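input
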Amino acid sequence: GSHKPRGVNAGRKVKLTRQLNRWVDKSYKKGHFGIAVKANPFGGSSHAKGIVVEKVGIEAKQPNSAIGKCVRVQVIKNGKKVTAFVPNDGCLHLIEENDEVLVAGCGRSGHAVGEIRGVRFKIVKVANTGVYAVLRGKKEKPRD
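output
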């Protein structure tokens, strides 16, 4: 036969086999072990607030030649440091050290996007004001 339990009372056996075999699936294991949440700098949430530690330029990988404008951010809730990309031309001038920023993922759930190595996050807000709005002059960045 096909070595599968079939029959009126086979439910328990089928259920237990499923439970065991699901752990072979990589994405199931990642979601249910609880390690992914621990390793995640945001602690499982989609966004996190942080303080800018320093501005860094990260060089693009071959064959491209660019310096990606990034900042090192220390996440407030757990003290972990992440490198976040600053989007748009000229946005790096809006961000100073010790500014409070809102950081989000870049969109590939834990993978770097495009040519800039190791950068998995991007800056969304500076001092509770959207980066894009400040750049376009629609809003002023609040002065302390």
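quick obs: The radius of gyration is 22 Å.
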